[in-house]
Amino acid sequence: MRNVFKVPIEALLGIEGPPVSHVERLVSTAGGFIGILLVLLVSSRFVGPKESALIIASMGASAVLLFAVPHGPLSQPWPVAGGHLVSALIGVSCAKLVPYPFVAAAMAVGLAIGAMHYLRCIHPPGGATALVAVVGGPGIHALGYGFVLTPVLLNVLVILTVAVAFNYPWYWRRYPAALKPPREHAAEEEISAETAESISHGDLVYALSQIDSFIDVNEHDLLRVYDLATRRLQTRHLQPGSIGPGRCYSNGKYGDDWQVRCVVDASPHDDPEKDSVIFKVVAGSGRRSSGVSTLTEFARWARHEVVRNENSWQRVGEGGK
Fold it and tell me: Which pairs with CB-CB distance under 8 Å and at least 24 residues apart come from 185-192?
């Protein structure tokens, strides 16, 4: 069992979010303001101020998803619309059919979660919508099943319309996610053929089934993250063509793991994958030892080329170890 005391406090508290720019944060703030302002104006026309405030609570949560995480699976149109509407329908039914308020409230939220799972429209604020239908008071109860249409459906249409219109001017935020165009550096954004072939849809389905929990990221984004991370890893290592006899290379590590190898000789082969090099360890761990490896393996090991400068090894072109 993993020792929780060894886990960084940031990880325990869940504050390891991805970095975003100030522009992104300001746009999200403005979008949430406009969206909720319009929803408030609509709700106040159908129910009283107190009931309206309760309804707005769930729409406020939706606004966070729509304007702060516009491309998340939980923020897309079907989860937003389906999540709120099915939850409202369940909430009204529980309020009418279950005579005990506490039981009705708990049942409404539980059934709403189950329904959203099966209908593939998980939207966390939907739970609040189901709850409001039960505990919202006389003004909400008087609406009956009309609550599903006005104000819930109307509010959903308003906030979705604002999300589409407001996010459109910023190409990287266009909503829904399917409207997001390729970036200017599309070649860098596209998933490489190697990644697409190495990881299939079935592989991702299997991996997610092993986690057995809902993850707020879609399949394409998972592939992109893997592909971009793999490309970055490749740039941190030398390419096989840059390895040559008479040159020395470091693995870029520190302490006892640091090592410098000098290539003594290279042995080409008809199959490039079988090209090999003979090397000698001249500094760091395993000093004075020698070995043979394929050119590809050596390139994966090497982080950068180095040269001897008096009593230290310096990285070629940067003058650092």
Answer: 189/224, 191/220, 191/223, 191/224, 191/227, 192/227, 192/230, 192/231
